[in-house]
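agent> fetching stored inputs for the adenosine-5'-diphosphate docking request
agent> found them:
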Amino acid sequence: MSRIRILPEILSNKIAAGEVVERPASVVKELIENSLDAGSTRIVVEVEKGGRSLIRVSDNGSGMSRDDALLSIERYATSKLYSDSDLFAIDTLGFRGEALPSIASVSKLTLVTREEAAECGTEIVLEGGKLLKVLETGSPIGTQVTVKHLFFNTPVRQKFLKTIPTEMGHISDVISNMALGWPKIHFKLIHNGSILQNWSAAADPASRITDILGKDFGSGLFPVKTDFHEKIENDGVSLSGWMSLPRITRATSQGIFVFVNGRMVRSRMVQHALIQAYGGRLMKGQFPLAVLFITVPCDQVDVNVHPSKQEIRFSRQQDIYDAIVAAVSAGLSHEEKPSWTPSKPQGPTAISEEPVRAEKKYPYIIPASDNRAPATVADLKSDRASASAQTPDPPVPFRPLRPKDQPQLWETPQSVNLNPIGQFFDSYIICESGENLILLDQHAAHERILYEKLADKSVERRIPIQRLLIPETLDIGYRQALILEKLIPDLCQYGFEIELFGKDSFVIKSVPMILSGREIKPLVIEMVDRIMETGLTANLEKSLDACLKLMACHGAIRANQSLTLAEMATVIKDLEACRIPAHCPHGRPTWIQWPRQEIERLFKRT
Ligand code: ADP
Ligand code: MG
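agent> prediction call returned; pasting tokens
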């Protein structure tokens, strides 16, 4: 007897659901994509208990006939793709014909839909993928899909669901991203009966950006468009969107939103291009903010490379790369032109007298793995580091001690007796200590000092506080606001007084003294962004520790800051009192040394 059998359809749908339906937010994403594909202008998402008990997406799109509705829940049934060639020219968000049957196989699904031409609607009820009822029903034009008790028949999956706030966070991310990419569509999100978001059709996409990402994100953005580059436009590729001025940056890539033909994607290539376009204007490790819409002829982009369709492949990577670099740098130089330049008629050539072209070619060979493009910040950083590491370092005659040798020196701080004699580049404190010449990295050293002061758990610890004369207001995105709100009590212990002030807005009233005179908003935003990357609930301890490191970093003496000898001596004294003086909180060495012998050898004295 043969041992190989074809799986029953319900089972194969359940297996497909494993890929397509990871959590409630994936259901929301698939259903919204269907609504958008159906030409809806208004999409309402209702959720109960973080999507565990109910997800309902209602739209005013084209709706379906009774026959189509019945087909839509069959595997591989789609109205978006009929032939091989269509697969390589997809202009809809969906195309696999898998979402509805997959979702239906792991939930209790009800579909109510009506086409304009039809007199009444159709209602279809399924449970665990099994068709229970089909009836005629009264219905407005459009479609409503209700998904109840997700994963009721796959207990293992159910166990993997996170807390309601976490699942809600993912759902609201999905909706914010969709709403950002589709500013003309009205989106509404209701959780347990109360309206969480209500974004009516935006008159201009910029106002949608402020609606979703907050006013602090929206200010300081400049427009980017391809008008300046006719050639690119003629190829059918166009680009539009907003980017931040170089002074407004983030420490993570969380502020970069890229839409290709309406689909939000994570693309390392695009991130590279954006950073490249800023040239030397961005500090190392900093990322711009961006909301970028790229339109590419559908036959030049392959969206069929990942089950959740978040990744894509361009057939002309290099051209797209160049187009992005060109458009963004043109936009940037336009912004940076002094305002007294006589104004010229705006048009395709207004900027081209100052040609800004992508000089450097797309700096890395596209490896096969780039198809799974989601770049982590670390990836991107290492890529950039390797790109800038092309010029070999000059030979170093000095041989500093290896970092692992360093802590010994500090085990008996008294015996070290560092004596500051000056500063090198206003960044390193030069010291002599017995028979050694020592360079202290003033920023790294001070970071260590502040970090240990903040992290001190002893009872007698007191963190001095600075009240701000003028409280600062902070207006951030919904998801970030959720995180910050949760962080408030913990940050309070470190000297922050932050209060919720209306929807997604906060006031910062006081800060730890070590941060007095520093810019506070960028720090708070960076703390929240970092936590967004890892997730707050995952590990609160770790998240807070990351916050302390950031506070220390923002509060510490900078490089290029000149210090008096007395100030240098204080840094040295405080560093000697630290538990781990030899390294900054990020693990970099705080100092390096050269023994006198070594120096004399180099001068050929010995
Ligand atoms: P896909 O989107 O990949 O085609 P789905 O399983 O998500 O596959 O949907 C199957 C089909 O059902 C779609 O091709 C479309 O014709 C129809 N459909 C699904 N949702 C809607 C909707 N909200 N409005 C109109 N038609 C829909
Ligand atoms: Mg679909």
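agent> quick read of the result: Residues 30, 33-34, 94, 99 surround magnesium ion (ligand 2) (CB under 6 Å).
agent> awaiting further instructions
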